[in-house]
Amino acid sequence: xxxLVLPGMNGSKLAEQLNARxxxxxVLFMTGYSADAxxxxxxxxxxxEVLQKPLTHETVERKVRQILNQTR
Length: 72
Hints:
Layout: E1 2-3, E2 5-6, E3 9-10, H1 11-21, E4 27-31, E5 48-52, H2 57-69
Parallel strand pairs: 1-4, 4-5
Antiparallel strand pairs: 2-3
């Protein structure tokens, strides 16, 4: 789980590096920006989910459980 906008790197680069090292890893991004504002940040060849901020514990818990239960 990571923010989509990072200092010195963006979520797309992070997802690419993670996918190269651990292709089975599941990625969950969070962001306070709208999808329109971040269209250039979206990872292109990776499987990922995005949660919009502000987050609640329940939203994070539900999404993490959903992602962990998914099979590839």
